[in-house]
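Table 4 source record.
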Amino acid sequence: MQQRPELARALQRITDPTDFCREAVAAGQALGLVFGEADVRMAMRQGRQAWSRQWSVR
């Protein structure tokens, strides 16, 4: 995404998770990448978990 800021901005504007997954997969396919909506959802889940962990007190 750092190499394609216009793509990052386009995806950041999407508020619906289903639409985001669909658009992320389409963008990936346009770049020759192969992954599905389930992969995007898993990455989103892992990102949320990592973000939450940084705030937990241990």
